[in-house]
Design brief:
Chain lengths: 324, 187
């Protein structure tokens, strides 16, 4: 009896020693989300058209809004959409007293993010999502052509990361595009075994002079250094496409496709990715890798010839997104 | 390289033979549970983040004399994600590595043990790996001993040395030692 009591006392003391239990948590502020999607139907070639990207952005816009409301935080969403054959958006946003078209050219996205940086506070969360093409090997995002006579603009990882880094508070970039893993900076303290699985690299990382700093910008990408795919989740007659990664992400956020076509009819449930009333980047990552239709690596006897492995920002810390 | 290893093993075998006459070969199973306090080397919201660490070690090659023992252990550690706090949470990871452990018994009950180890760690969710080193020290209390078996309660105090974090761990554990070969009485 005495021994049990002593053990319980020691265990209790250890628990009380955890400073998480008696310090006040920092306040979580507002949520801003920017959902960028392009179907590329205004390009000269029909070969590169994407049928699921607009669904991705529309439904992520609603799902993130719903989770934000569930977390009792104020939310503002911006849809940057290139749809059909035109070269203009269908909405004008006013951000920091600047009028910005929702047509996703490089300059419009830059303007939106720059003006947001003047509005967003230190305790806010900004989520940027992109559904579209990524350039092979470099991962550059393929944005909308400003006019028909010029080539499509691309956005490189360094530039997007620097635009997002300038926004105060916590930031998350979610990319559903080919080679989007190029946007994930290597951690100075750990090595991704998806990209490099040598023990020599582990030692090099440990003994390198690069210092780990607590990141306020996280990236969650659909694929590491390979293609990403979209699929039809509806029927042959009633097609409803999504990116494989985004479909699993929507499910992680509690989105269920009871209706395949009308987003307003879709029911939103308690996010299954949440653990202990919280959703973190790792929770989303874990849910997606477990539940996406395609495997995360090529299997010798698997039924799929394609695979895609999501990637996220490494290191010892995970970013908490929502307290539900 | 392979020749060097074989030469080393042969020399170890030759020079350890006289030791066998004095002491005994032991195997051991070591289980402990600790509070894992990750003190960051970077600026964080709190002084340290708390996790639970469960350690399992298998000493497949050990040597024990009357009051002294040394062993080479295979060592595994399972660290949970930290208690959520603020905008961040410490990631959970698993470790595997080898450690050299030594102990000295002051009397029939009380002893002191120490170990050093190197590990490869793996963040389970995001599939990232990193290496680390650990040093350990603590008292051990022998609760049972026969000629072949011994059980100790241990209070391991461990310092886990990661690149960006130093993590002291305090816990309780149980160590079971088995001497599979009975020592021959000499005339």
């Amino acid at each position: 009896m005495k021994r049990t009591l002593s053990f319980l006392m020691v265990a209790g003391l250890l628990l009380l020693a955890s400073c998480e239990l008696y310090l006040d948590e920092p306040r979580q502020g507002d949520v801003y989300h920017i959902n960028v999607a392009l179907d590329y139907e205004n390009n000269s070639s029909a070969k590169d058209n994407l049928g699921g990207t607009l669904n991705d952005a529309e439904e992520l816009h609603l799902a993130l809004g719903s989770v934000t409301a569930g977390a009792q935080r104020a939310g503002t969403g911006y849809r940057m959409i290139q749809k059909g054959s035109g070269y203009a958006g269908d909405h004008i946003y006013s951000v920091n007293s600047t009028l910005i078209s929702n047509y996703p050219t490089k300059s419009n996205i830059h303007s939106l993010l720059t003006n947001l940086s003047a509005v967003v506070q230190e305790d806010d969360l900004t989520i940027f999502t992109y559904s579209g093409h990524g350039v092979e090997e470099s991962g550059h995002l393929v944005l909308a052509k400003p006019v028909s006579t010029v080539d499509a603009e691309t956005l490189d990882p360094t530039t997007l990361l620097s635009w997002m880094a300038a926004i105060p508070g916590k930031k998350l970039i979610i990319l559903d595009s080919c080679y989007s893993g190029m946007f994930v900076d290597g951690s100075p303290s750990s090595t991704s075994t998806v990209l490099d699985n040598s023990i020599q690299k582990f030692f090099e990382t440990y003994h390198s002079s690069d210092r780990y700093e607590k990141p306020d910008l996280f990236v969650l990408s659909a694929s590491a250094h390979a293609d990403s795919y979209e699929m039809n989740y509806g029927t042959e007659a009633n097609e409803h496409k999504h990116g494989v990664f985004t479909y699993a992400l929507l499910q992680a956020l509690g989105w269920k496709h009871t209706s395949k076509t009308d987003p307003s009819l879709v029911q939103i449930f308690s996010p299954p990715a949440a653990k202990w009333g919280r959703i973190t980047v790792d929770d989303l990552f874990k849910y997606i890798t477990k539940n996406q239709v395609l495997p995360t690596r090529l299997r010798l006897f698997g039924s799929w010839s394609e695979y895609q492995h999501p990637l996220t920002t490494g290191g010892p810390l995970d970013l908490a997104l929502f307290n539900l | 390289m392979r020749r060097t290893v074989w030469t080393f093993l042969l020399l170890l075998l030759i020079f350890s033979t006289p030791l066998w006459a004095r002491g005994k070969i032991i195997c051991a199973l070591d289980l402990s549970d600790s509070l894992y306090a990750a003190i960051p080397h970077f600026e964080d919201e709190i002084p340290f983040r708390s996790s639970n660490a469960t350690s399992l070690a298998l000493g497949f090659f050990g040597y024990e004399e009357e009051a002294f023992s040394v062993s080479l252990d295979f060592h595994a550690l399972f660290v949970t994600p930290s208690i959520p706090f603020g905008n961040y949470q410490g990631r959970g990871f698993n470790s595997v590595g080898f450690r050299i452990r030594g102990s000295h018994q002051f009397n029939r009950v009380v002893g002191l043990f120490t170990s050093i180890s190197g590990e490869v760690n793996y963040y389970r969710t995001i599939k990232e790996a990193f290496i680390s080193y650990s040093v350990q020290l603590g008292p051990q209390f022998r609760v049972m001993q026969t000629e072949q078996h011994a059980i100790d309660i241990t209070i391991p105090v461990t310092i886990h040395l990661r690149k960006e974090i130093t993590a002291p761990m305090l816990g309780v554990g149980l160590r079971y030692s088995l001497a599979p070969y009975k020592k021959q009485e000499t005339l």
